[in-house]
Amino acid sequence: MDNPILDIRNLSKTYKGGTTALAGVDLQIRKGEIFALLGPNGAGKTTLIGAVCGLLRPTSGTIEAFGKDAARYWRDVRRRIGLVPQELAFDMFAQVDHSVQYSQGLFGSPRNDAHIEEVLRSLSLWDKRSAKIRELSGGMKRRVMIAKALSHDPELLFLDEPTAGVDVELRRDMWKQIGALRDRGTTVILTTHYIEEAQEMADRVGVINKGRLLLVDEKAAIMAKLGSTEARISLSQALDVIPQALASYPLSLENDGRTLVYRGGDGTGKGKREVAELVSSLVTQGIAFEGIETRESSLEDIFVDLVERGEVPA
Ligand SMILES: Nc1ncnc2c1ncn2[C@@H]1O[C@H](COP(=O)(O)OP(=O)(O)O)[C@@H](O)[C@H]1O
Ligand SMILES: [Mg+2]
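That is the input. Now the predicted structure with magnesium ion docked in place:
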């Protein structure tokens, strides 16, 4: 990748207690993309973000952000990064706008009230700007966290499990917000264990487990490579063998020949098309059937499968 906004090489982190949270991670992030880091609890997602944001010291490896060594130019790099941490963390007694102003100046950015107003408005927080944070609902508190992270107009935004434990409405709202950031050219890296979120939002997806990146690819390519369709067709009369005319499809007979099973496709719609063709050839062949059940594998199936096998697919 040419001029990645973030270039992580062979990054490892072993904590004092001996836990290895990251084991040789290589990852390049393209400017302007939305990247979803998908992995179960304990996979190393928060550790990876902490290393990039200078919150912890890697055991080995290098991180370059905006073409600069992140360890050496920590302050420069940090000023261009926004971080929405996993845990709510702020002074509950502070007023919303003061808290956001504070964040804006934290890494040396100049004060810019117009930008703060824009951010607060975009997050529907403008009317609450004088409220004390502790008076807000959980969802509104989370918006304040995002406002703080956007206060200095970062080029690269980390969202660590932005929607864990938030209601569906707020989740949709956040997705919209993230889409709007992308439209402005902000690069977004989000971590999640909601596959739906990755499927909805991301341009590329990385699957991490036990400190190792198992897979990094365009979302569409992951779906195409690993997605599949299964259709189970209940036949009116059992078949002994698959008819010659259907030999080109990936079919098998189950249930003593009473169920014809199609397993194929590539997650791009090929499976659905083939099943439709198959059904019309069954009709042409005079093979009667009583029902069809189809299912598409989701990113979730793929993810579970990868993590269980713990290996990189070919
Ligand atoms: N400060 C810490 N000290 C020791 N171990 C830690 C610390 N933070 C995280 N870990 C361990 O490192 C591993 C990865 O944690 P984390 O990066 O928080 O994963 P995730 O964000 O994917 O849930 C886990 O086994 C966790 O218990
Ligand atoms: Mg985490």
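The longest strand covers residues 20-29.
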